[in-house]
Design a protein that fits this description.
Number of strands: 5
Order of helices and strands: HHHEHHEEEEHH
Shape: globular
Strand order of the largest sheet: 2-1-3-4-5
Largest sheet: 5 strands, mixed
CATH architecture: 2-Layer Sandwich
Structural class: alpha/beta
Helix content: 25-40%
Strand content: 15-25%
């Protein structure tokens, strides 16, 4: 069969289809399988993607623009104190990690008193650590919670409250010296906080701070 006859045959077939009633054309179209690309909301998610998702209030960029941070530790239980844990040591660990950022560590007297003009000073964000534990004859089970608490306005009633805008926690068991275990876990949580803080404020931070070792404060950041 010549090429011209094939072309003529194809043309006649298309013409015959177009001459069909509209209802028949619609039925034919519905019978043809069509590959439809699902939008991102319907796409299957990988397990790694699911694990990497974080709560909306816990995003790193919530830490952007923070210049001053106050460090606080909740009252430790007597059982923890009896095993050598102390608020002073935990605060020292927190400050050690913060020392490599460009954030100023506010002291207790800062942010809670009136300024020279008579106006109340703005309360800085508070990095708050809370430790809980339960002990038995096999050891101690503990939880360590680290939160950044900040003055926030509730949109529904326009009230100013202190609320956690960033949070991480660790649960573990200690069969040895719990004070050492707590110090180690606090360091882990503080590294997570510092990573998010440096990411959120990377425009204001140089490479020397991103890779600085804990306890080594850059000389440009030392207040005169």
């Amino acid at each position: 069969m010549s090429a011209s006859r094939k072309n003529n045959g194809a043309f006649l077939k298309r013409l015959a289809v177009l001459s069909l009633p509209p209802l028949v054309l619609v039925q034919m179209a519905l019978s043809i399988p069509v590959a439809v690309k699902a939008d991102c909301g319907d796409c299957p998610k990988k397990a790694a993607d699911k694990e990497s998702r974080r709560e909306g209030f816990n995003q790193p960029m919530i830490l952007s623009g923070i210049k001053s941070i106050k460090v606080a530790v909740g009252e430790l239980e007597d059982s923890l104190k009896a095993q050598g844990a102390s608020s002073e040591n935990l605060i020292a660990k927190m400050k050690e990690e913060l020392s490599t950022t460009h954030a100023t560590i506010a002291e207790d007297s800062e942010g809670c008193c009136k300024s020279k003009t008579g106006k109340n000073r703005e309360i800085p964000p508070i990095l708050y650590l809370k430790v809980r534990s339960v002990s038995d004859d096999k050891g101690s089970v503990y939880s360590v919670d680290l939160s950044l608490v900040e003055k926030t306005r509730v949109s529904r009633n326009h009230k100013d409250i202190m609320a956690a805008v960033w949070h991480k926690d660790i649960i573990g068991r200690s069969s040895g010296k719990i004070a050492d275990d707590l110090a180690e876990q606090v360091t882990v949580l503080m590294k997570d906080f510092k990573k998010d803080y440096l990411l959120a404020n990377s425009a204001d931070i140089g490479p020397h701070e991103l890779f600085a070792e804990p306890g080594v404060k850059n000389h440009l950041l030392i207040e005169k």
